[in-house]
Amino acid sequence: MNTPLILSLSLLLSFPLLFLCVPRILPPKEPLQISLPDELDDLSLFRRASTTTAAPATTTKKPKIAFLFLTDTNLHFLPLWDLFFRNTPSNLYNIYIHADPSSKITPPPPTSVFSNRFISSKKTQRANPTLISAARRLLAAALLDDPLNSYFALISQHCIPLHSFPFLYKSLFRKPAMQSFIEILSEEPQLWDRYVSRGENVMLPEVPFDRFRIGSQFFILTRQHALVVVRDRRLWRKFKLPCLNLDSCYPEEHYFPTLLSMEDPDGCTRYTLTRVNWTGSVGGHPHTYRPHEVSPRLIEELRESNSSSYSFMFARKFSPDSLPLLMGMAKKVIFRD
């Protein structure tokens, strides 16, 4: 066998080994650290927000839902959300957007309900305490902005609505006693690995293992619980610490369920209204719905829950190229309750 052929075969056989070895040779992505100036800036914001109060119970004005959009890419589904809010009285909702400063966001057109809805934002990183800070920033901005904000819904850039706005509004305010819709889990097999991801005894004494919880990153909180979050200093000191095991560390999925479970477990439903499909998840990411999967039947399936008392209101995650199909079925399927 001649030398050029041997070299060609050697190179060909080396490619699989290269793909296996490169991730181990290259250093892992450096975790994003929260700088002291950013921490102090947030602390000032949270202090101001923690002194706010709700609108008086005697007011004749209707309570509002604050929609908190968290994005580190682009707001691909703005046209669909614009339809969601279209023909809805503006006195029933507010919109706040936290966009990572390093992301390339296409500014919404002036006619969009999302125009001029951006809050002061800082950099974020997946599986990092910066996502907790971003959510707290959104909550603080909404608390300061309007005393009528009564529910606070955290939304992903890959999230779509599954019902019309009137359906969501009636569902949230149908009971006099408001509760937060946040997933709180205590029996998951990965609980211990996540608890010790910063070190075996690091979370003590503030967070003993039997009080540690996990859940979904996205939630709908009452104003009372939004205030609990922005007022917290004690648990934040633990959850902002860097992780040693990055494969088990998802601070944004741990902090909110743990804090609210410790502060007011009876005020939480313990389930989320955002549907996520974890079947076949890859690298900690849930299943992403592609255009060939999008259909009226899928919307119906995503709405279904294990309870007869509630329906899922949002779903994630969807690929940007699925937007045309979603827009095509918006009026006749998604917003037809």
Structural description of this entry:
The protein has 337 residues and is α/β, with parallel strands linked by helices. The chain has one domain (34-51, 62-334). The chain contains 11 helices and 9 strands. Strands 2-1-3-6 form a 4-stranded mixed beta sheet. It has a 3-stranded mixed beta sheet with strand order 4-9-8. Helix 10 (296-303) links the parallel strand 8 and strand 9 (314-316). Helix 2 runs parallel beside helix 4 (130-145), helix 2 (36-50) packs antiparallel against helix 7 (223-231) and helix 4 packs across helix 7 (223-231). It is globular and about 55 Å long. The termini are far apart. Its main location: membrane. Keywords: Glycoprotein, Glycosyltransferase, Membrane, Signal, Transferase. It is found in: Membrane. One of its GO terms (molecular function) is glycosyltransferase activity. InterPro entries: BC10-like (IPR044174), Glyco_trans_14 (IPR003406).
What's a concise summary of this model?
This protein has about 325 residues and is of the alpha/beta class.
Which runs of at least 5 residues are low in confidence (pLDDT < 50)?
17-27
Number of strands: 9
Global morphology: globular
> What percent strand?
5-15%
The total count of helices amounts to 11
> How helical, in percent, are the residues?
25-40%
